[in-house]
Write a structure and sequence with these properties.
Helix content is 78%, strand content 0%. It has 150 residues and is mostly helical. Helix 2 runs antiparallel to helix 3 and helix 4 packs antiparallel against helix 5. The chain is globular, with a radius of gyration of 18 Å.
């Protein structure tokens, strides 16, 4: 129980708050690029807007989590490299988990809420993948990217 309290301490709640903020910023950038900058009219627009929004959201995440959430005082490139490695690893894990969930959902012909099997599989795999990403990202940032020096 004590380890659980240590894991879900104020840092966890700050991490969730930062995640909401960096998601809002990243998605806001995507919407601005698509609709105000007119990128939706180009074949490369949606993909490039998503990439730019993800990078901007990640930059916000890096600085807020480094200085606000985990109060990491380490200088240099090492925390940035660890953060980047963590994000890439979490994305890969998310894709694998989502792919497996989608395949299993389709194989079992699962469906709910009036959705067809393919739509339900897509939504379920997205939700499980997103939760997996958040969990892996918190663990990775707390214990790898911005780990406390003892």
């Amino acid at each position: 129980m004590n380890k659980l309290k240590t894991f879900f301490d104020i840092k966890f709640f700050k991490f969730i708050l930062v995640g909401l903020l960096n998601t809002a910023v990243g998605e806001g950038v995507i919407l601005l690029l698509l609709h105000l900058a007119g990128w939706k009219h180009f074949s490369w627009g949606a993909g490039m807007a998503a990439f730019v929004g993800t990078v901007v959201g990640s930059v916000v995440s890096y600085f807020l989590n480094k200085y606000f959430t985990f109060k990491n005082k380490e200088n240099g490139w090492k925390p940035l490299v660890r953060f980047t490695v963590n994000i890439v690893a979490c994305l890969l894990i998310r894709v694998v988990v989502a792919t497996v969930v989608s395949a299993l959902s389709k194989a079992a012909s699962l469906s709910m809420f009036g959705m067809d099997v393919d739509t339900f599989a897509a939504n379920l795999s997205w939700a499980v993948g997103a939760c997996t990403f958040v969990a892996c990202n918190y663990i990775g940032q707390r214990f790898f990217a911005f780990r406390e020096k003892k």
